Amino acid sequence: MNNRATAFRQGSLLLAIESSCDETAVAILRSGTQIVSTVVASQIDLHRAYGGVVPELASRAHLSLIIPLIEQALDGAGCDHSGRSLDGSDAVGAVGATYGPGLIGPLLVGVSAAKALSLAWGVPFVGVNHLEAHLYAALLEDPALEFPAVVLLVSGGHTLLISMVAPGEYSVLGSTVDDAAGEAFDKVARYLGLGYPGGPAIERAAGAPAGSDRSPGRVRFTPPMLNEGLDFSFSGLKTAAVQYVDAHPEVPSAVVAAAFQESAIEVLVTKTERCADAVSARSICLAGGVAANGPLRELMAQMGRRTGRKVHVPSRAMCTDNAAMVAAAAHYRLLVDGPSPLGLGAVPNLGFPGAG
Ligand code: KG4
Ligand code: ZN
Fold it and tell me: Which residues have any ligand 1 atom within 6 Å of their CB?
């Protein structure tokens, strides 16, 4: 058994699990960069009726999905259910899982499953910080990414501007002082009756991509804290949208959605450019669920062209929660820090690594 544990090296297979919120995902990577198989099961339909993620329902769904998804990922990688390749040439050499931040029940499902596999297969277990995992999305799709890079990590729970000098070497230069960007999209969408999840709903309602002729014209919300530093605030923008709807019920929700989206994106792009200037970044990366937003992707790419920086915009599937990014982070952590103790628990409020 232990020969599998000691054999983990750069070229080994690593299986990782993501279950921090409402996606159950399993992926197998070779060398931390080659995706051998990746499967994602979204629970969006389960939570839609409630307008948000219901933690208890999420835990139960993860529990029933986790084993079939692990088996599916192993099948996709040409491995049997003990993690050995069918031709006998290879075997999964380590197992990783997101251990925070996220919802406690969902996190525990993934962490427990990963530890069980680690024990059963006699391979190391490694706990992964979900926020760090998002940073690997761009790297996975473009291993030639040039450093220093600035990463805008925008998800349902976080809004961070991170300077990345190399994998594992980060500093947080900006964050939100109140709501996360995705949270604001979700709340405004809910108020406008556009449905869940809010980000895609706002984008759909807002219609045409940025840069096209269609502009909301008559409604504009001031981008919050646009000229101040690298921190963000989205709570005031959310309130401005809500108050506007209350005062102008005759204005179509699509117009308000477009104005909200335009303002939120303007502030995200402007601060990313400011941050890139401050650290003389050679490249800019987008990460997290909000990075699936079409106009944000387009305006960030335009800014990159204007300022002569390469902008890495991962595919939408790589921006939203998936296990390939977790496996990439796990591979790196395992080689640098070694395995995590099996006593590692789920940490719902885990911060960004190195950010206290
Ligand atoms: O990274 P993620 O999948 O899960 C978290 O770790 O939070 O991000 C989910 C967030 C949600 O708030 C969702 O509304 C937002 O990402 N989102 C979007 C879009 N797609 C997802 N926001 C704006 N535009 C989108 N197209
Ligand atoms: Zn995420």
Answer: 21, 155-157, 182, 185-186, 197-200, 203, 288-290, 292-293, 320-321
